[in-house]
Amino acid sequence: MTSHHPLVVAAAQAAGPCTPGQEQAWQTRVRALAVDLYVLGDVVGRDIQRLAQATRFPATLLGITVEESSTRGVLLLRNVSGELEQPIRTDRGDSETGAAMIERAKQLVGRRVLVYKEMEPLASNPRHKARVVAHLMDLGPETESIGEDEAKGYVLQAADGDKDAALAAWQEAELPERGPVSAAQVGRALVLLPGARSSARE
User: What's the pTM?
Assistant: First the structure.
């Protein structure tokens, strides 16, 4: 039989000293904490297994939008080759893990990240899979600016060649007409495009 002694010790330490005369309440508190820690261990184990099976690649996070239909976040990434990555989504935003990832991605816009990607079968058709982000590791700020032509090319590409939509997004994001821009500035334009909420299927 597996010993849960270390778990009980950790729970007792988390509960703090027992006040004289409150032994029963203290024991109840320790039992509840021990159960919480046991459940947490299972959750962490599943998270680690998910990361171990994921594919990793470095990129710059340009922006994130949220799909209204699925509540998933859609990450807009620039890879090390200077190209826009195919969109990659978070878990559903109405789940704890999805909501946490969306908030984390928002904090990392304009920064270099290590993306842990997994391919998740679609519920509607398991033969098709979607690119889903399992984890984002912060690699620090993106210090290199993006040239004017390259940045405008990203926005035009994301707009599927629609020059009017690309121009409207660029102007609405208040980007300069000339000169280099930052990754965060490009991201502001990308999330304003009509197609920014498109599906992240591969």
Answer: 0.69
